[in-house]
Predict the structure.
Amino acid sequence: MIGPRRDRHALSLDSLDALGLPVGDDGMVIGVDAEGRSAVLGVNRPAPYEITLIGGLWTAQVMALRAAATGARVAVETGRSPAWTALAQAAGGGQQCVTLHDVGRVPPQGASAGSPVVVVRDCGMRPPRGRVVAGPWQSVITLLPYLSPVAPRLMEKSGLVGVQRVSPDEAAQIGRVLNLPWPEVEALSTLADGVTLWCSGGDRRFVMTQGTDAETGLLGAARRMD
C-alpha cells in the first residue's frame, strides 16, 4: 500500500551548518565560560591525568560529586574527614561511591575502564607524596587552599591547573609558572566566588561553577574560603 504523500524536507548545502548540535567532550560539566558555553572536563581517561586546583573546598567537593555522577568511584584523601562526611553519605543514592581515607592511607583502587577512579587529595598546603598516584583510568585531583612551596612542582606536572581567587603576590607567582598574560594575572586577585581559571598547556578559560539545587542543599553556596 502506498502511504501518505508529503513534500520532502530538503536543505541546501549552505544551510547544513544550521543543524549543528552543541555536543561537547564526554565528561562532567564543571560550569559555563564567559560566552555561556558549557565547560566539560573528562576525568575518566585511559592515560594518567593529574589536576591541581588552587582554590576552595566547595569547588573540589562539587567536582567530586560530579565525577561520581559520571560513574567513577571517588576516593578522598583528607585530614579533615568531618568536612567530607555528609558528601560521602549523600553521594551514590545509598551506594558507597565516595570513600574517605586518612592522609597516606588510600589503598590501591583497582581502577579499570569499567570502574574508573578519581582520587581527591585534600591534604593541606604541603600534601605528602601519595601512595596512590595517577594511572590508567585513575585521575588525581590535588586541592591546595593557597599557593605553597610545593605548588610550582604540582602545577608543572599537572595536565590541568585551576586557580581561584588568590592574592596579587600569589597571582604574580602563578602567572610566571603558567606563563599567563598580564590581564589574566591581574584578574586572579578579583575573581568572584565559584569562578576558576582553568589552564591546560596554552589553553585558558574562565569558568563559573554554579551548584545545582541538590549540591547547594548539601554544600551551601559557592565560596572561596572555608
The CA atoms of residues 34 and 53 lie 20 Å apart.
